[in-house]
Write a structure and sequence with these properties.
485 residues, mainly alpha, two-stranded antiparallel ribbon, 16 helices, 63% helix, disordered C terminus
Length: 485
């Protein structure tokens, strides 16, 4: 929610208009000689402390002239000034948030009024006073600015909560709705990349580097503008983060494809399963047996747990909307041109290297989360850790081997072997020392992937919240990241 900043008379007027303030009425103007309205809530004062409707200023002056000496007049004048100070202080405390910190507006009003009556004129004790509370004396703490500061703190806290809230809502949207069926932003990005490649392609590393820089830099710049435009609007920041998280994640689609493959293999429909495998990976499925399709599915589920879930959430927690957009752009380009084929060996090199760098930490975190989630799915945490540390570096990819080895150890499997990509045969090293994957292991891998998604979401939300708190403590002005002074 956006912060509402009010000062002086506007704050007092706001208190008068607030139906939730229990009967505290303050005149439109708080000048010297002003007094509390006789309609103030009687509950705010004990019988002994009650202010009766007294004489007007002229009558009061007459009585003072008759019954008080000069010192008494000074005390009365000081007391009347303190009345005015406290009136503003009570208003500031109420505007600062009645009911906050476990204290109701009624309690704040009553305690402030009683303290005002009981305190001797000229009291100067300013120790341990809360923001928004007036201190009686010649140099009172300015209550209204303190109340404004509390409202500013609330605004900053709301802005700081936007990123973690948006990440959590995006994960929820992905789980409930899955990928958008039409007008998916990633699909639109892919079409733009194909069109640009037709005009720009050359078998040259530098041309590929420019291609990657343009297609990653442009959406990141747009995302940075969105992040900046919503800096003062936490609700819109939350909505933007949730929408981009939803479009960047692929956890629900990954699980759905795994379950489809499991159902096809369990039903013996190998022909349909071979065609469906292209939804998960780029392997040539021709001639694959059920056990080969099961292995390809488990390996793809393991690798994509990092690419489709953990990595975007981690980048979103650290860098917000630009991080989400930038990671998804890099990862999509790697899937399109990051191959060692004759066409893309040089042109796609930059995209592949940038993707390797972007996944360096997320892939290892994914392996750790697999070990953490393994017992919840009937797997072995010790096996996941041992296999990831021993076999993770054997994979030709600097990153894919970690989550694949962790899944192999968690489920007691042996992954790796012969793969065919567009006629090119690769012999992958063995990961794990268990049995080859069977059809039933596909559903186990899906369940493990869902547990990893929950764990990754919790870590991303906690990381985003922690970074926001660090930013708040480091910024003495109370401004969140990216906010202009």
């Amino acid at each position: 929610m956006n912060g509402v900043f009010v000062t002086g008379q506007g704050m007092i007027d706001e208190v008068q208009r607030d139906d939730e303030v229990d009967g505290l009425a303050i005149d439109d103007e708080v000048d010297d000689g002003e007094e509390f309205d006789d309609e103030a809530d009687d509950e705010a004062f004990d019988d002994d402390d009650e202010f009766d409707e007294g004489p007007d200023d002229e009558g009061l002056d007459d009585g003072l002239d008759d019954g008080l000496d000069d010192d008494g007049l000074d005390h009365v004048d000081g007391f009347r000034d303190d009345l005015d100070q406290a009136a503003v202080g009570v208003a500031g405390s109420l505007v600062a948030g009645h009911g906050a910190d476990g204290v109701t507006a009624q309690g704040r009003r009553s305690s402030a009024a009683r303290a005002l009556v009981a305190a001797p004129p000229g009291r100067r004790d300013a120790s341990d006073h809360a923001p928004g509370r007036a201190v009686l004396g010649d140099a009172p703490t300015p209550a209204v600015p303190a109340a404004v500061a509390v409202r500013q703190d609330r605004f900053v806290l709301s802005a700081a909560a936007a990123r973690p809230a948006g990440l959590a809502l995006g994960v929820l949207a992905d789980a409930v709705l899955g990928d958008p069926r039409r007008y998916h932003p990633v699909a639109g990005f892919g079409r733009a990349a194909v069109g640009f490649e037709r005009r720009w392609y050359a078998d040259d590393v530098r041309r590929g580097a420019v291609f990657t820089a343009v297609l990653v830099g442009a959406p990141v710049a747009l995302a940075a503008l969105v992040e900046r435009a919503t800096a003062r609007h936490p609700i819109w920041r939350t909505v933007a983060t949730a929408a981009v998280t939803w479009s960047a994640l692929g956890g629900a689609s990954l699980a759905r494809e795994g379950l489809v493959m499991a159902a096809l293999l369990e039903g013996g429909d190998l022909e349909t399963a071979r065609r469906r495998l292209s939804h998960l990976c780029a392997r040539d499925p021709g001639g694959m047996a059920a056990r080969d399709l099961a292995r390809a599915t488990v390996e793809s589920l393991a690798e994509n747990a990092s690419d489709a879930v953990v990595a975007p959430l981690l980048w979103g927690a650290v860098a917000g909307v630009p991080g989400l957009v930038g990671y998804r752009a890099v990862n999509t380009l790697d899937a399109m041109i990051g191959y060692r084929s004759p066409r893309y060996l040089r042109f796609g090199r930059t995209a592949a290297r940038v993707d390797d760098a972007a996944n360096l930490l997320p892939a290892r975190l994914t392996g750790a989360l697999v070990a953490l989630a393994a017992p919840a799915t009937g797997g072995s945490a010790a096996g996941a850790w041992r296999t990831m540390l021993r076999d993770g570096a054997r994979h030709p990819s600097p990153n894919a081997g970690r989550p694949e080895a962790a899944v192999a150890g968690a489920l007691g499997l042996s992954l790796g072997g012969r793969n065919v990509y567009a006629g090119h045969v690769e012999e992958r090293p063995s990961l794990g020392d268990g049995r080859p994957p069977q059809v039933a292991d596909v559903r186990r891998a899906v369940t493990l992937g869902r547990a990893v998604t929950l764990a990754a979401t919790a870590i991303a939300v906690a990381l985003a919240s922690g970074l926001a708190r660090v930013a708040q403590r480091g910024d003495r002005t109370g401004r969140p990241w990216g906010r202009a002074p």
